[in-house]
Design a protein that fits this description.
Blueprint (H helix, E strand, L loop, with lengths): L2 E12 L8 E3 L6 E3 L8 E12 L7
Antiparallel strand pairs: 1-4, 2-3
Bound molecules: zinc ion (ZN).
């Protein structure tokens, strides 16, 4: 029998765009600007959503 389970959760992760600095080098000139991905916090929240399906495996005779 198949079993289906839905899941959804949030996960806080380090921003990879700015390496958790919260800012990135300005293009073409010295200085920094606020990272547009994490808005300066250095962290991002990722939302995961999907389904997991389970079914028996093996023992086919
Ligand atoms: Zn960032």
């Amino acid at each position: 029998m198949e079993k289906c389970r839905a899941f959804s959760y949030d996960k806080i992760e380090v921003c990879r765009n700015c390496n958790s600095e919260g800012r990135i080098p300005e293009d073409g000139r010295p200085g920094f600007k606020i990272c547009p991905i994490c808005c300066g916090s250095g962290l991002v929240k990722k939302h995961y959503e999907g389904t997991v399906t389970m079914e028996p495996y093996g023992r086919e005779e």
